[in-house]
Amino acid sequence: MSGSSNNTLNTSVEEAQGNAQERRAKGEFVRGISGFRSVLGEDPDFPSEPNRYHLFVALNCPWCHRVTLARNLLGLQDSITMDIAFPNRTNDDDPVEANRWEFNPQRVATLTGTTLPECTAETATGQNYRLAGEIYAAEGSNEASVPILYDKHSKRIVANESAEIVRMLNKQASALGSLLSEQERPDLYPPGGNGCGGQLRSEIDMLNEQIYVNINNGAYKAGFSSSQEVYAAAYENYFDMLRALEERLASDGRPFLTGDNFTEADLRLFPTLYRHDPVYYVRMKLNGARILDYPHLWRWLCRVYALPGVAQSNSLVHCRQGYFGHSWNNVVPHGPFRPMSYPEAYSHPELAELF
User: Fold this and answer.
1) 38 pLDDT above the threshold of 60
2) What does the pLDDT look like over 47-66, one tens digit per residue?
3) Dihedral sign of CA atoms 88, 94, 100, 105 in order
4) How far apart are CA 117 and CA 308, in angstroms?
5) Whole-angstrom Cα distance, residue 126 to residue 123?
């Protein structure tokens, strides 16, 4: 498995950009770097206040899924508002620009033949923008990605790096107006120090790096690179990492990756594994095995899915529409239906014993 860190790049958050243009020309998928990196509660322009901030997301996007998970698990649904883009980007005939995230609740999904009830118009800027790119353009940026953490008071983007948004929502949850008490609310990144807290953070950091390189970003290198060599390496690293995580959970029967408590490492793994069986197995060419074939990982997946707010943080309809609706023929598969349909299967940890 790959994933060693260095002094200049946090490889649990972003990918090295060296020779990026050349690597892309050779068929490698190279993820770009987010440009808005203010820190909520530390930057004086962005104080931690309830009802001030807003999220722009797309539910099919796994990086957005991290953020919607954090919002729900931390009890911030009422104090941080949210707009949801249609899962497919704009078409070539779009009057402004193709391949852009669009806030268009009237758009019809090919999978369902209807509009998607989760999709919204843009409600935070006061400008009723249709494209996420217009939110960036208002600040002189040519970026166009989601998620975006947005300040409704100053009409400015705070941050657009998902890992950093999750970290600041966790740290500032109480000041942001969490509905949960400190006793009820998970601490996704427990404080450091010389005791066990520091050791736990080191363990989370290690897992974050391995999961990002081999699983989160690795799935995209397997699915979207056009080089057979790049695909093969990403495929091998992905399944090596799944085996290592299965062994970690099996070693002592721990419920979560670092032990008894759900942490940031679990949160960052969940969006990819949630998509694996019904989407990535086919779309990302990761057909070596299903998560269902790893009994401890399957039970972990079901355990996380059962946590309050997790099931409501995403939609596999959006995931199927987004990934397959962006494929060469735009046809969205209906399955799988064995052992049962998804996400219903995630409520059945016992399935791991049957297959």
Assistant:
1) yes
2) 999 999 999 999 999 999 99
3) negative
4) 21
5) 6
Annotated catalytic residues are: 61, 220
From the list 50, 41, 47, 52, the residue with the least C-alpha distance to 177 is: 50
CB 287 within 8 A of CB 27: no
Q: At residue 277, what is the residue type? A: D
DSSP states along 169-217: HHHTTTTTT-SS-TTTS--SS---SSSHHHHHHHHHHHHHHHHIIIIIH
Of 313, 222, 230, 223, give the one whose Cα is nearest residue 267.
313
Kindly report, residue by residue over 233-287, the tens digit of the pLDDT.
Answer: 999 999 999 999 999 999 999 999 999 999 999 999 999 999 999 999 999 999 9
Does pTM top 0.85 for this prediction?
A: yes
Q: CA 324 to CA 163: how far, in whole Å?
A: 26
Position 354 scores a pLDDT of 74
Is the model's pLDDT at 328 over the cut of 80?
no
Q: Are strands 148-151 and 156-159 parallel, antiparallel or unpaired?
A: antiparallel
Residue with tokens 């843009």: 122
Q: What is the mean pLDDT of residues 102-120?
A: 97
User: How large is the angle between the packed helices 217-224 and 228-252, nearest 10 degrees?
Assistant: 150
Give percent of the chain above pLDDT 70. 95
- Check if the beta carbon of residue 258 is closer than 8 Å to that of residue 252: no
In the chain the domains, ranked by start, together with CATH numbers, are: 53-171 (3.40.30.10), 196-353 (1.20.1050.10)
Please say whether the beta carbons of 157 and 150 come within 8 A: yes
- DSSP H or E segment with residue 156: strand 156-159
State phi, psi for 238 to the nearest 5 degrees. Answer: -60, -50
Q: Would strands 81-84 and 53-57 be described as parallel, antiparallel, or unpaired?
A: parallel
Distance between CA atoms of 245 and 273, rounded to whole angstroms?
Answer: 12
